[in-house]
């Protein structure tokens, strides 16, 4: 009637592979592919092999709160590794509201069993923000679900916040934040390691490879000062953008379906957040490396950046003056002031444009000049 | 427990948070209550923002049926601003729309719903050779060989033997309501895995047009990326052939795997006729080959069917203030400060204030006589309606739409053929049999089956335009906010995967003044209204058996047949007064 007992010694990834009829030689090939996929040097391969020989599939509890399920959906789109590989060979996804078989009491009991059985050994992933307004989120009759979350988190090996809502609060926390939403990280007890995977949603491969890193190497990947894995969030989109040469040349799209748009010019003046957004879109791209927003003609809305929802409108470059609540639109209020506030973006443009000696009569050029002058004055 | 109240919370394999409470007498459900147990407040969050950004916010209402909210929002804003988008943009949006219908239905069936009909662990008992024989009987899908099914079975065995069942750990395996032979269970498990692979490919259509999936990009006025077959950075031949490749693959998968699997399931579950629920069906209609404003050309027709009377279709108008209205008498909102106002409001006139009066500590049951859900109760001319693929089929059938009639009649005759070919000894089915949980599931497969045909047609039309030198994709005339009227309002509708979706927007001084979405799951998952009429989920559960109260398979089977999407359903906005929301807490 019920599921077969889970009280069996868990097999290592190598044992699983042997049972699939995979030879030692093939296994080593897989291990080298995994080593490279994790962004490691091949000389690190023995570590990966050892880990795969000894590590059982790691239990993962993945909870969803004030979420749109975008992160779970994106997770299922991963090409490398595929979600099937992750689900059946790398991790053991014990709870996920969208994918798991059981409902209601069976589902809730199972979480308790896993927490009890593998204290300090399971990954706790979450998508969606947690509201502080009682009743705004009541799972299993618990109107203050953040208390339950805190309790489970206290026993996790690590907490992984998947997506911008879990990471920063996301859209529910956008002004005026009607439910008092916060990131799940705000409710992680001290001492429990955590990691942020921002993105609305994150790229599927960013999610699966972060989980793979933890499952295979048994530790969290290296992170930046905001807790994001460096492997995926070290660079701004702008640094790796295929339209970057047009930015440097001062060639901008001024309207969708214009001549510049057909040529694939830079989308900066359409509001593109590429210069201020850290994410792997330009390199990994989306859905098996096929494309990404900027390639497909739309400016980046900066979905992996903190508070991006409140930094609109998306089709204008609006920047916040540092240390103030004031936002201005550089297209409207005079480019000189904007350049100061633009956190060095236009100054950076100036340097690029001038060094390449490909000046064109454009607003960016003017902005760049202004920025340079202002910078000298400052 | 013979009698009493059964609670299912959370209902999983859905989007969002849903709680079902059911009164049970002698193993039969006599009353049911549906509660949305989470709220975010996206309608409040979009107020005061640039209308051109609206799509990006509302798209985050749901990452499962991703893009349909974006589509409804750009349509609403274009309606308000009087923008007619170029034909190419309309076709590209149609292709993205058809893609989500296909993707969402396939994922819903295999990943979210199939486990209610398919006993995964029972697949271990199957004879792979016999499974191949059955599969080949109802489809010409090339994977259906004994060796292939043996491989899949070994994989299931490995997972079960490992003791770590992962996502399969908590299923109600062995429950007496499962009716498939082990071989058909095995076929379905194999296709579960294939669907997982398929779904990540078909959305590549969104990646081409919208840069990514989930949450591809939209633009008010058309589509953001220009078409130019001679440009490396534009939507060119190589990009369009990738789209075409995915359409072809989707066509094969839906016609040879998904639809046939649902037909065979229908044959085996022919007698499990529970879950029909409301007999009123509503569709706004959609997927015109020409323009959203050409209602007569809709391939999914518009209309309402009442009391399962398939001889009459009633006119539907999303703009008419006496048609679509929302009630809040059993929802955690107020109108005009009144807890139980007793009247409904059209979205343009409506108002909503969050007014949570539920328990603030852990609870056993909700007060279902009072307010018990974050979901409002939308009604059409004060009648409770079901929306969704089954509604599209019923309205299309009643409207004598030839393609829908053909699709439905053909499916029913194939089910009858399977019933006799498999010697199932069951009575034949007709369209009234579709008024059931399995019929709803069949309606969804037919929806996808039509969508792959529409996609082929729209792709051909797009190629034809390009061949004729028509490359326009964007109307820039109303892009700048200073070209807009001081105050204007619009509505955008979409036949989303889960049913009729409407976004109503009022734009004032270049900003969003008011916005409200009435979404498919709000219709279906609604609580009772002022007249005590129940919502579609609630009505559909009444009369269903419930064999084992702590394994409520029948409840999730019926509720899943609607494909719940609770994050979509739970909305709030303050349309009455332009001020910050009031939150009342009864501690």
Beta fraction of chain B: 5-15%
Strand order of the largest sheet of chain B: 1-2-3
If you consult CATH, what is the topology of the largest domain in chain A?
A: Rossmann fold
How many domains, in number, for the residues of chain A? 2
Number of strands of chain A: 9
Q: Please describe the biggest sheet of chain A, giving its number of strands, its sense, and whether it closes into a barrel.
A: 5 strands, parallel
Question: What does this protein look like?
Answer:
The complex is a heterodimer of chains A (378) and B (587). Helices cover 38% and strands 9% of the residues of chain A. Chain A folds into two domains: 57-232, 3-Layer(aba) Sandwich (Rossmann fold), CATH 3.40.50.700; 235-351, Cytochrome-c3 Hydrogenase, Chain A, domain 2 (Irregular), CATH 4.10.480.10. Chain A contains 17 helices and nine strands. In chain A, helix 2 (24-37) packs across helix 3 (45-54). With 378 residues, chain A is an alpha/beta fold. Chain B has a three-stranded antiparallel sheet. Chain B has 16 helices and twelve strands. Chain B has a single domain (41-324, 372-521), classed as Cytochrome-c3 Hydrogenase, chain B (Orthogonal Bundle). With 587 residues, chain B is α+β, with helices and mostly antiparallel strands. Chain B has helices at residues 42-45, 54-59, 68-81, 87-113, 128-138, 146-161, 182-202, 204-210, 237-268, 389-398, 402-421, 437-467, 520-524, 536-541, 553-560, 566-569, and strands at 4-8, 18-25, 28-36, 281-283, 303-305, 324-327, 333-334, 353-354, 377-380, 487-496, 499-508, 511-518. Chains A and B meet through helix 4, helix 5, strand 2, helix 6 and helix 13 of A and helix 1, helix 4, helix 6, helix 7 and helix 8 of B.
């Amino acid at each position: 009637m019920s599921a077969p007992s889970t009280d069996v010694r868990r097999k290592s990834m190598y044992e699983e592979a042997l049972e699939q009829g995979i030879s030692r030689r093939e296994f080593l090939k897989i291990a080298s592919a995994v080593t490279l996929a994790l962004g490691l040097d091949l000389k690190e391969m023995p570590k990966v092999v050892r880990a795969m020989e000894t590590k059982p599939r790691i239990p993962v509890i993945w909870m969803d709160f004030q979420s749109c399920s975008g992160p779970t959906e994106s997770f299922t789109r991963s090409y490398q590794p595929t979600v099937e590989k992750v689900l059946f060979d790398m991790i053991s996804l014990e709870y996920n509201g969208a994918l798991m078989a059981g409902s209601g009491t069976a589902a809730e009991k199972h979480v308790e069993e896993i927490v009890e059985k593998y204290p300090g050994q399971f990954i706790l992933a979450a998508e969606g923000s947690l509201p502080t307004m009682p009743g705004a989120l009541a799972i299993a009759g618990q109107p203050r679900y953040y208390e339950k979350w805190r309790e489970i988190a206290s026993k996790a090996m690590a907490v992984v916040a998947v997506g911008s809502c879990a990471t920063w609060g996301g859209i529910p926390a956008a002004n005026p934040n009607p439910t008092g939403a916060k990131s799940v990280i705000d409710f992680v007890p001290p001492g429990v390691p955590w990691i942020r995977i921002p993105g609305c949603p994150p790229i599927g491969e960013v999610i699966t490879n972060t989980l793979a890193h933890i499952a295979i190497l048994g530790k969290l990947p290296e992170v930046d000062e905001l807790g994001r894995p460096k492997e995926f969030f070290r660079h701004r989109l702008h640094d790796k953008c295929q339209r970057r040469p047009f930015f440097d040349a001062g060639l901008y799209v001024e309207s969708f379906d214009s001549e510049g748009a057909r040529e694939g010019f830079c989308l900066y003046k359409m509001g593109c957040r590429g210069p201020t957004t850290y994410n792997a879109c330009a390199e990994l791209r989306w859905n098996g490396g096929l494309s990404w927003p900027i390639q497909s003609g739309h400016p980046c809305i900066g979905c992996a950046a903190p508070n991006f929802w409140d930094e609109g409108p998306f089709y204008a470059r609006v920047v916040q003056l540092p240390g103030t609540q004031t936002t201005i639109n550089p297209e409207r209020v005079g480019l000189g002031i904007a350049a100061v506030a633009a956190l060095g973006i236009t100054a950076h443009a100036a340097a690029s444009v001038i060094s390449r000696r490909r000046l064109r009569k454009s607003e960016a050029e003017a902005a760049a000049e202004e920025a340079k002058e202002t910078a000298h004055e400052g | 427990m013979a009698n009493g109240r059964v609670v299912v919370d959370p209902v999983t394999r859905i989007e969002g948070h849903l709680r079902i409470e059911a009164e049970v007498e002698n193993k039969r459900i006599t009353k049911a209550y549906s509660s949305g147990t989470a709220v975010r407040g996206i309608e409040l969050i979009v107020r005061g923002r640039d209308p051109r950004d609206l799509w990006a916010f509302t798209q985050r209402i749901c990452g499962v049926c991703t893009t349909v909210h974006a589509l409804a929002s750009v349509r609403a804003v274009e309606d308000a601003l009087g923008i007619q988008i170029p034909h190419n943009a309309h076709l590209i949006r149609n292709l993205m729309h058809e893609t989500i219908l296909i993707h969402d239905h396939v994922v819903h069936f295999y990943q979210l719903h199939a486990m209610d009909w398919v006993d995964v662990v029972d697949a271990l008992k199957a004879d792979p050779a016999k499974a191949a024989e059955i599969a080949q009987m109802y489809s010409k899908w090339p994977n259906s060989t004994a060796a292939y099914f043996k491989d899949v079975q070994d994989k299931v065995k490995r997972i079960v033997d490992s003791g770590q069942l992962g996502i399969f750990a908590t299923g109600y395996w062995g429950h007496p309501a499962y009716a498939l032979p082990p071989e058909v269970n095995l076929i379905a498990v194999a296709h579960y895995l294939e669907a997982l692979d398929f779904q990540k490919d078909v959305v590549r259509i969104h990646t081409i047009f919208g840069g990514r999936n989930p949450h591809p990009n939209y633009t008010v006025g058309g589509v953001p990326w220009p078409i130019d077959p001679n440009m490396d950075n534009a939507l060119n031949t190589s990009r369009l052939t990738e789209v075409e490749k995915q359409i072809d693959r989707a066509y094969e998968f839906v016609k040879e795997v998904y639809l046939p699997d649902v037909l065979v399931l229908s044959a085996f579950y022919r007698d499990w006729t529970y879950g029909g629920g409301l007999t009123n069906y509503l569709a706004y209609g959609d997927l015109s080959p020409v323009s959203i404003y050409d209602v007569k050309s809709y391939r999914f027709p518009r209309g309402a069917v009442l009391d399962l009377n398939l001889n009459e279709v009633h006119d539907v108008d999303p703009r008419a203030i006496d048609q679509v209205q929302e009630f809040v008498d059993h929802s955690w909102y107020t109108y005009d400060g009144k807890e139980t106002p007793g009247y409904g409001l059209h979205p343009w006139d409506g108002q909503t204030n969050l007014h949570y009066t539920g328990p603030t500590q852990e609870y056993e049951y909700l007060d279902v006589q009072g307010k018990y859900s974050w979901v409002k109760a939308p009604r059409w001319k004060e009648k409770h309606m079901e929306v969704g693929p089954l509604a599209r089929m019923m309205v299309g059938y009643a409207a004598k739409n030839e393609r829908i009639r053909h699709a439905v009649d053909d499916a029913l005759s194939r089910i009858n053929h399977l019933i006799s070919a498999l010697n199932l000894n069951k009575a034949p089915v007709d369209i009234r049999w579709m008024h059931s949980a399995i019929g709803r599931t069949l309606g969804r497969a037919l929806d996808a089956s039509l969508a792959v045909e529409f996609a082929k047609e729209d792709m051909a039309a797009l190629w034809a335009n390009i061949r004729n030198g028509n490359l326009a994709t964007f109307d820039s005339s109303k892009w700048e906010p200073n070209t807009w009227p001081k105050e204007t309002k619009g509505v955008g509708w979409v036949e989303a995967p889960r049913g009729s979706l409407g976004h109503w927007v009022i734009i004032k001084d270049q900003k969003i003044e008011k916005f409200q979405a009435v979404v498919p799951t709000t219709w279906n998952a609604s609580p009772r209204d002022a007249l005590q009429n129940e919502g579609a989920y609630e009505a559909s559960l009444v009369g269903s058996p419930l064999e084992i109260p702590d394994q409520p398979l029948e409840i999730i089977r019926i509720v899943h047949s609607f494909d719940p999407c609770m994050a979509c359903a739970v909305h709030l906005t303050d349309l009455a007064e332009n001020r910050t929301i009031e939150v009342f807490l009864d501690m």
